[in-house]
Amino acid sequence: MDPIREAELMMTRRQLFGRTTLGLGTAALSRLFALGGLGGLTQLASAFDGQAHHGIPGLPNFAPKAKRVIYLFMSGGPSQLDLWDYKPKLNDLFNTDLPDSVRRGQRVTTMTSGQARFPIAPSKYKFQHHDNGGDGIWVSELLPHTAKIVKKLCVIKTMWTEAINHDPATTYLQTGSQLPGRPSMGAWLSYGLGSMNENLPTYVVLHSKVSSGKPNQPVYPRLWGTGFLPSEYQGVSLRSQGDPVLYLKDPNGMDRTTRRAMLDDIAALNHRELGAFGDPEIAARIKQYELAYRLQASVPDLMDLSKESADTFELYGKDAHEPGTFAANCLLARRMVQRGVRFIQIFHRGWDLHSDLGIDMPSQAKDIDQGCAALIKDLERTGLLDETLVIWGGEFGRTVYSQGPLSHENYGRDHHPRAFTVWMAGGGVKPGMVYGQTDDFGYNIVDKNGAIIDPSVDRRTPGAVHVHDLQATVLNQLGIDHTKMTYHYQGREFRLTDVYGNVIHDLIT
Amino acid sequence: MKHSYSLLVMAIAGLGYAAWPEQGAKPKQPEINFGRDVKPILSQHCFKCHGPDASKAAAGLRLDSFAGATKALDDGCAIVPKDPTKSILIERVSAKTPAMRMPPANSGMAALSTEQIGILKAWISQGAKYEKHWSFVSPKLPAIPAVSNPAWCRNPIDRFVLEKLDVAGLKPEPEADKDTLAMRAALTLTGLPPSQSEQAAFRNDKSKDAYEHYVDKLLAKQTYGEHQARFWLDAVRYADTHGLQLDNERSVYPYRDWVVESLNEDLPFDKFAQWQLAGDLLPKPTNEQLVATGYVRMNLTSNEGGAIEEEFLARNTFDRVETTSTVFLGLTVGCARCHDHKFDPIKQKDYYGLYAFFDSTADSPLDGNIALPPPFISAPSKAQTAELAQKHAQMERRLKSLDAGKAAAWFEAHHKSLILTKDWQVSSVYTSPNFDVAFEKAQPGEPGQPDAQWKAFDFVPGTDYNNIIGKDSSSIYIKGTISATKAVEITLGVSSDDAVRVWLNGTLIHSNKASRGVNQAIDKVKAQFRAGDNQLIVKIINGVGPDGVNIRIASDSDQLIDNALAAFRRTPQNAAVQNELKKTYFQLGPKTAESRAYLALTKEITEIEASIPKTLIAKEMATPRPTFILKRGQYDQKGDPVDRHIPASLGVLPANLSVDRLGLAKWLTSPTNPLVSRVFVNRVWQQHFGTGIVKTAEDFGSQGEWPANQALLDYLSVSFMNNGWSIKKLNKMMVTSAAFRQSSKVTPQKLAKDAENRLISRGPRYRLDAEVIRDKALDAGGLLVKKIGGHGFKPYQPDGLWEGSSDPASSTHFYKRDHDLSIYRRSMYLFWKRTSPPPAMITFDAPTRDTCTVRRSSTNTPLQALTTLNEVAFLEASRTMAQRLLSLNVSDEQRLARAFEITLGRTPQPSESKILTNALSRYRKLYQADPAAAKNLINVGDAPQPAKVSATDQAAWMIVCSSLMNTDEFLTLH
Predict the structure, then answer these.
(1) What would the mean pLDDT of B97-126 be, rounded to a whole number?
(2) Which of A160, B340, B487, B797 is the most buried (most CB within 10 A)?
(3) Is the Cβ pair B300, A180 closer than 8 Å?
(4) Which residues of chain A lie closer than 8 angstroms to B961, CB-CB?
(5) CATH number where B545 lies
């Protein structure tokens, strides 16, 4: 009998009850990479348990619009004022003080709270109006490629967050909490929805090179971690240096035949132990090693771009030939989507420009512009865009006033959490849409009449999108009611959106 | 709460409860316990709107208290005791129409099942008693139960275990064989396999209590403290970096080493807890007690550019409160940061009452991005302290053997000071309206002014004189005669508090209108001395506060000699003065064997002192910060002021305790505290058996699991306290129980009736923790270095992990691995960078140490298999293990038997030998045909390659060893 099949048959409820909460801990064979999904597990557990799970009903809760997510995270906080949020009136206000009526005593970081003045720094970059199939949209000259796909984008100009420093703000977007310790969005989805493939991880993270050579602000495994969820749901970093997955490669001097033979011997020894002790965990171990063997073949296959067409490289640009560039990562993302990876996150750093926006913005934007546009086009031409939700954005925006010296050619910008721009595409979001507006300074969120509004995290504030609202909306597109995907830990049902968040129905089809 | 609920269903089924008819004659009813049976249902389905959070009490109804539930509301009483039919609660939860049914469809809560409604009815029939949640009632020593097979029982644990097995109709498994027990006990107590000799001694010990002796030996090993410390370090989130943004290095490892040492010395748990929480508040705290307060400083910190101090003060304190609550009380209080707890009786005010104990430490909320944000202390290890004491004693002996008179005579004969000073005098104090005037105005005594009222002054150059003026805005003059043997230029060193002016022979040679302390600066002043007597006048001008002066005239060494000699002449019998002279003699006198030995000693002492680590400690501010409720947990939304207090539901802090961290610590570890002992004992049980008696080790509140065997838990926790909080005794009781010693064989019957082994119907069986797996591999390879304590080590790691995830400005941006034997140290000493922890550890479920973890998850992923198959340390260990085997002058068959001993602690079965013997010859053939591949394979790790052993043999055996290290048995405690 096929040892894997046999192992599967050996599976019993014992494997469903490990050392973790909810009895979903150890070695559930069907979930080595969160395979199979929770719905199935619940049924399986119920079948053995004679009762339903209380915490989490079967997922998805309703028919999903998107099956998967690609999240392009611009770490450091890109300047919305130099990319998306066009404020022509500022040109006449160069180097004048930001009116108190605009700042309204709102807190600023201690990097600029000691500045004698808050002088207005208009963007030095030119904006052009583009047809997006709707009312049109202004896009900066820094994003020429992205400007050509605006018909596909749903651009939110009124994202906001309470966090004003990088670490809390990034942790917030990734995990729904400013304090470390919660699962990341990708981990939640791996846990809640499971995998769509048997040979690759469910949640993959990619890191992109930064041409400026200034990758300021760290991005670390906590941001794709599992918090209190079992660690199998954490994102797996695909590296462009060394083994793409840690320890994937067999040692020098060991060929695949030898590895196969060795694994067969290990399996034989484990089978004897299984016979002697009868613990189904041993069967799980046997399968674990088989999956490792398969992963050793599937990952190199994924990373091998040699069979991609010249057309494709034309689309993504010549950067895509160089492993680790944002463009190459976007191409890999498309390949992962084709292979059934559920959640792909690409990080690009270096956006924390407290000074020198006049010098560094062009290279930052150039790093990502063509890759973003190519990814959307590629997903569309391969018919995958409809079921893939693509998100672009950072952890907060940047101030309209200059941090440090200001000239027409160069300026700096401090962190600005009260309004920033994020876009989404595919996955059932409205294409060609611009959502929300800010005041003439790009400082506050305003209503349709231009009156400043103070958005609330407690209640839905029309025209504004809070971090938890974005998360709720993303989950919604995947068929998940964000209030229902919870995990019982430390006496409490935790969820990605804490106790907040509203689905922004205006954004979705 | 499905677990406790399912237990009840089992119990009820056993008593025929499931057949209880809806109406009609009452059969025998099972005793319903509010906490175990009813509260989980209410808290899961009702408390969100009708629970302890007073602000949310919908329709004015609260179901968390008898008074609330029986209150007459508009449409009747939710609960009418003894009458379920009149109780509106029953009507509403069983309503057929969704509009009437509770909980409402839109609440996200599931409707109650028939069984649950049955339980509520039975409870109401029995009087609807609201008993206090079990864990909030102090444990009492339970009666030892009668059981079916007293002979099986080795200690009281077994009585409680067997009682449950009897009810379930299960029999314990037979005792595991000696080899299995030897491995099991060694792994669970020390985290390492037994040594060959330890195992042999145990095998050959035929006495009745051979196992108990073996366990005693394990408990006495240093590796015991290291392994046990690991669980504590998870709980307190110990790490070597700050954890946020730059994630710079933090120096606090003496705390980690203190934990190891305390456990090895079996420091009673109450002291262990008190020192950590409040060692700084103990009367005259020892160094050790201060090092222990590193616990308070263990929270994540940051100094991110632009961070607001007050915001981080709140974040840090949240972290401390929530960790302390989970570690000691097993309660999750985090919810109450923003509002009254919905399930447990913890009010928001209580949360900030606890918060107030922790928000007034003297450390800055922002860490300055430095390794040692104050306060910190030097923390010599015991070895360092002993070594220092020994060196100091040697130094004393050397000093004693020298005669002070001889030293003085030698100096007098050989040292001719160019400069001698005499006749030092001091003027009276002149007060001025302000500092400027005090500095400018010439007073009597200054050259060109009338003479002052001079008084003699016992002035020694090179010495600090503090507060000779003693008044603000005042000045004073000091005058002395300096005799030079010839004309000479000397650079004077002048320190002053505050300003200073100096005249030599009537000429102003220095003037500095400084505001400073004596220790802050030395002004260099060139002075031309003439042969014969010179007159030096120094004016000191004080602004505000303390004042002082120090004038150095000779070169440092001349000055030393002059001073030592002068002092000796004044008081030749003074021991300190003698010693000073002798030290000077060794240092500046003739170069002899004695002086060289003495100087070597001082150098060694300096080096030891420099190597003593410094560690973060807690210190209380002189005046505590006022604490306020923070609305919704927002640091800038202050509500009502709050005093330090413990949660009201747990009582009040006894009046004899101080209202500070020390009082809190003493309350926690008082024998009447219902939680602390239970919570700790449960975690120790979890360590040994894989699952706690309360499975939710982090939550003993009403949302946590009901204990699988409360009598056992209470017995253990009361006897733990009665045994003087001895952790070693507790461990011993558990691992010497018959329950622990059972075979871990899983039979179909046991799998069906006790799938999770919660009844302990067999011996423990679970995957080993990350650290144990790596340590076992190193041990098998003969590589493990058992050095205790010290700076975290950095072993092999794939390139770019730190660099790729951190800011280039971080002090932990570049990973520089160690190149000495420290890379073979036990995993618990791994340098722990919170934002990029050692990958092999994380892959095997080690927590990141960002938050308190008292229960690790145990997962099974292909990445784990890849780690033990391909990571350098594992490959290297299999290579050196192959070398070990090949160095034995025995047959391959015997080598293989030895390989099983080393990795699995037992001899192989014939079928196993066959598998690996065949494999060995297969690999031999393969590598004989391809020697280059063999060379490549064994070219891994730093460990030296023995010249004599053939690469082919090594490679073939290496794969065999690696195979054994990848068996389930190697990775599992069983």
Answers:
(1) 87
(2) A160
(3) yes
(4) none
(5) 2.60.120.380
Q: A307 lies in a domain?
A: no
Q: Which residues in chain A have Cβ-Cβ distances shorter than 8 Å to B957?
A: none
pLDDT of residue A57: 58
| B75 φ/ψ sector (left φ>0, alpha ψ -120 to 50, else beta) | alpha
DSSP A388: E
The nearest alpha carbon in chain B to A277 belongs to: B745
Q: What is the pLDDT of residues B44-62, one digit of tens each?
A: 888 888 887 777 777 788 8
B829: left (phi over 0), alpha (psi -120 to 50) or beta: alpha
Residues B841-877 pLDDT 10s: 999 999 999 999 999 988 888 999 999 999 999 999 9
Query: Does any domain span residue A174?
Result: yes
A495: containing domain? 68-246+319-507
Cα(B248)–Cα(B373) distance, rounded to whole angstroms?
11
Interatomic CA distance for residues B149 and B151, integer angstroms: 5
Cross-chain CB nearest to A230 (options B244, B835, B857): B857
Q: What is the mean pLDDT of residues B236-250?
A: 96
- Tell me if B968 and A281 make a contact (CB, 8 A cut-off): yes
Give the distance from residue A136's alpha carbon to the nearest chain B alpha carbon, in angstroms: 37
Q: Return the bridge partners of B828, or none.
A: none
Q: Would B518 be classed as within a structural domain?
A: yes
Q: Is the separation of the CB atoms in A122 and A87 below 8 Å?
A: yes
For chain B, the 3-state helix, strand and coil shares in percent, each to the nearest 5, are: 45, 10, 40
Q: What's this model's pTM, rounded to 2 decimal places?
A: 0.80
Each residue of B608-657: pLDDT tens digit? Answer: 988 899 999 999 999 999 999 999 899 999 999 999 999 998 999 999 99
Contact B408, B573 (CB under 8 A): no
B455-456 and B499-504: which strand pairing? unpaired
Q: Please check the confidence at residue A52 and state whether its pLDDT lies above 70.
A: no
Q: For residue range B822-851, what is the model confidence (pLDDT) as tens digits?
A: 999 999 999 999 999 999 999 999 999 999
Other beta carbons less than 10 A from residue B548's beta carbon: 19
Q: Complex ipTM, two decimals?
A: 0.80
Length of chain A: 509
Residue A26 covered by a domain: no
What is the Cα–Cα distance from A89 to B516, expressed in whole angstroms? 54
Q: With bands split at pLDDT 50, 70 and 90, how would you rate the model's confidence at B553?
A: confident
Spatial contact of A151 and A431, defined as CB atoms under 8 Å apart: yes
Task: Extract the tokens encoding A223.
Answer: 């941001």
State how many domains chain A has: 1
Answer whether residue B301 is part of any domain: no
Residue A291 lies in a domain: no
Backbone φ and ψ for B610, nearest 5 degrees, come out as: -70, -30
Give the pLDDT mean for B162-186.
Answer: 97
- Interchain contact, A278 vs B955, CB within 8 Å: no
Tell whether B91 is covered by a domain. Answer: yes
Nearest to A87 by CA among A438, A468, A506: A438
Q: Report the b/e string of B572-581 with b at 16+ CB within 10 A.
A: eeeeebbbbb
Taking only the tens place, the pLDDT of each residue in A339-381 is 999 999 999 999 999 999 999 999 999 999 999 999 999 999 9
Q: What is the mean pLDDT of chain B?
A: 91
In the block, tokens 């022979």 appear at: B505
Nearest Cβ partner of B746 from A219, A222, A277?
Answer: A277
CATH classification of the domain holding A159:
3.40.720
Task: Pick the last residue of a domain from B131, B153, B170.
Answer: B131
Asked which of B98, B131, B164 is the last residue of a domain, the reply is B131
Q: Which domain holds residue B488?
A: 395-610
| pLDDT for the residue numbered A22 | 31
- Of B728, B909, B678, whose CA–CA distance to B189 is shortest? B728
Distance CA B180, CA B183 (A): 5
Number of domains in chain B: 3
